[in-house]
Amino acid sequence: MGPRSMRPVFNSGNNALELVEELGLQDKVLSVTREHAAVKNKFIYVDGKLLTLPTPRDIFRSRPPLNQTLASLLYNEWRTKSIPVEDETAHDFISRRFGTQAAKYLADAMCQGVFAGKSTLLSARSCFPDVFKAEQEHGSVIKGMMKNSKKRRAAIKSHLGLLAKRERWAMWSLLGGLQTLTDSIESHFQETETVTVQCNEPCLKLEFLNGKAKLETTSFSIEADHVFSALPAKDIARILPGNESNLSNILRKVPYSTVGLVHLEYEGDPVKTKGFGYLVPSCEKSRVMGVTFDSCCFPQLDRRDGKFSRFTCMMGGAWFEELFGNPDTVDSEVLLNAATDTFRSHLGVIDKPVRTHVTISKNCIPQYVVGHHKIVTDSLQYVRDNKLPLSLLGASYSGVSVNDCIYNARQAVESAAHVS
Prior knowledge:
Structural class: alpha+beta
Strand order of the largest sheet: 3-2-10-11-12-9-13
Shape: globular
Helix content: 25-40%
Number of strands: 14
Strand content: 15-25%
Number of helices: 17
Low-confidence stretches: none
Distance between the termini: 36 Å
């Protein structure tokens, strides 16, 4: 129901593979190489058709919805004059650098697929920091990415990372899904004598006194030298005491989107198109933001008692209440019907699914709106200025991917422990 794959790229991606290796999960890794259909074929749904997103393979080929070659798109970006800005929406940034069609179809769809948000609200600086920084520092996204390519090459410290590089992995998962990773982390610490794992203990209050932190739950309290909190910003804001209201007010500025996920399993292979899946730009007025072809990506996770195909529909996001109403009261059948209707109209699937599962994840994805970097800077500055024994981790601040969350947590712990 959450993330289903990870990418082995950059420091954060290699760090995650290092963790997998430390946990002894190498034999459970499911890799997908760059030659796989799920990597080569990614689609966008426009004007009633599934259109292939442009790739470097067709750099001189013009195809809808952009109706220009990738080469001309990149050349025009190279020649477009840079404008110094502190921040701007993803829509405005892509429009300025690559044109309105790219913003309408590509930036819009990407913001839905990653953040379940609106490209007209989300921050280019915070959502796509490398791209934004490349243009601001080098005058062009293309120039900046080319100059920074060597700097971004990560030092690979694990055998699994070297294998991923040698075999050209594009993404990976684990037998049992990515929950295998979190389950293994929990099991590892359950077996460590110096660690106590407490589950199902909601945090009620976090306060600071004399350089220490005191945490209260429903059944116990604990005093700590330092707290590493991966709670969403809105939740840690709720448990901070009144004398830390300035920090609470900063953290409450991070908005969130609600996402409905409908998992469908069909008998046989009803969708003949092979690929990762497709996204639907908001201009299409669809009730579905995107569909992943789960069985194409990881057939190893399919049932073994016959031939079945799995798919996931993502819906709602920044448009949830507009499309479906109150997430607390909406009937799951409404979302299920929207998903099956979409399969019928988009993919021509008239068969009924043999298994379905609907979840509504309320306020689950932080929205890095324009100015988000100031929220992050102000909250970290407050912690430093007041010498609070607190590290703010998780998806609310500097990256929503699993790779980012793991990597940022490691850096925070090493910093607090003064590990170089």
